[in-house]
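Record type: ASSEMBLY
Status: queued
Input:
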Amino acid sequence: MQGWLSILIMIALGAGFALISVLLSGVLGPSKPSAEKSAPYECGMPPVGDARERQSVKFYLVAMIFLLFDIEVAFLYPWAMALRGLGWNGFAQVVLFMALLLAGYVYVWRKGALDWGNEKTERARKLRT
Amino acid sequence: MTPGALNAIVPMACVTAAGIAAMVAESFREPGEHMPIAGLGLVGLIGAAISAVLLWNHNTSSFGLVSADNFGLFVTLILVCVGVLTLAISGPTIERERLPAGEHYALTLFALAGMMLMATATDLLVIFLALEVLSLAVYVLTGLRRDSPVASEAAFKYFLLGAFSSAFFLYGIAFTYGVTGSTHLDRIGSVIAAGAAQETLMQRLALGLLLVGFAFKVSAVPFHMWTPDAYEGAPSSVTGFMSTGVKAAAFAAFVRVFLSAFEPMRADWGAVLWVVAAATMILGTVVGVVQPNIKRMLAYSSIAHGGYLLVALLSGNDLGKGAVLFYLLTYAVTNLGAFGVIGLLESAGTQPSAISHQPFIPATGHQPPNDQVRDYAGLWHTHPMLAGLMTVFLLSLSGFPPMAGFIAKWYVFTAAMKAGYSGLAIIGVLTSVVSVFFYLRVVVMMYMTEGERPAAFPAVPRMAGLALVVSAIVIFYLGILPARVLDWAAQSIGTIF
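Status: finished
Output:
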């Protein structure tokens, strides 16, 4: 039962911290509501509306790139846990894996896929027309 | 891990490294700057060829999943030929269509690495992985002309149907695992051989699903619908690449899976494959006759050639297995040569301008590509050399005696006769005769019809011209002195079956 007690204390601390933070900010903070502030999300797409809305294709690109490099981290965690058992051999393999991803990252960066409409994509557009 | 444990994957590692180098080089290329990216690919392919030759007869294996036996290495060497020819002939197409050069080469090399993995993999899951690696690269290559609706349609069709067939293949693997408890080919083979007497429905289902997956990739008849559209929409060099490389890799895995692991179930798949092979040969030939577009015509011809390869696979005797390898080599050299000429002629009439090296410029206002059969009228009078080379390639495809295509077909039909498939051999000979009609139609156009071809014609790039001449020489060599290569093919099948 000792182990469970510490978990209970953890839950109580977490819930208490969240509750107290929300209550305190409600009591102490100044209250000046506006339409923008009462929206569910302050940035991004409005959550209610026509589902067939036009979206910038850049979101798609960024989501894809995020997914790819997110996988990298998903592989790194199990490797970090098994680091001692795998030794230098495992280290070399992970370094190779990172180097391959880095090559992809350099490509994505240099091609301007991470730019959100700054001068680099402008230059590319001028070249096209 | 011992030092030699990675030896079996050295060929594909060379190609992958070249592909990554091409990708990084492209990202550092300023718009309009010339870079020898194709040279990088050539270095990687030469590395792959050297390592494949060094591994010959060593029968090495990596991780128990990839086995560099002579069979896989022979296909690897065929793929190196495909890669070198593709790099050499794609220059004019890239210039004319203003394709992104670095991406074109990098994707070609990645696809080649996947094909080499597919040819040497001995585990169904690794075969699936390799299939996806090569397919994803080829889908993108198909749609590389981003401003062309035809290319987008082709890539989209290819992608949707390809994803669908991948699902079939994956379910086949899952059911195979359910029946045998393994995805490793040796293990599957021994389990099926042990329990061959009591075949279950699930075992047959697994076999059928795998068959559908392979049949799609080699564009056998009920699953061939994507082929003409994808081949027509893709840039010519890519069409040549996918019609030869994908076919070689898919047939290598097809042979490995069906003639080793599933050989005990021949009674089940033999009859199905008989019908598929016959239908593939007949439909590919008959529909090819009426095509006005030369790329569509060669697409149907490619379907028909897939049918001949299926006959060799079905024969299953030593002669048939050797014939598959020899046929793949012959077909690779011949078809890439033909598509090389098509790529050169497509660029006729449009002068390469100063801005043509910049990527992603919509090619607006240029004349329609010269890809109809009637566009070849009078080619002999303006470009006798190209017309002569095209004649060699087309005659070899149809199987005329001094060319390699004749020997390849002759071995396939002999193998079929020896294995007792005389019906298929007769269908094969008859469809070959019919196919001569549509190949010769182009030849007649080139030599005996007057054309209104404009005199303006960009000079043939030295690399592409050299590649075409070498292909033609190889075709004659394989056609007149085939013994040595046939010996190699026979040796290499001895290692796995």
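Annotation: The beta strands of chain B are 60-62, 66-68.
Annotation: The longest helix of chain B spans residues 149-180.
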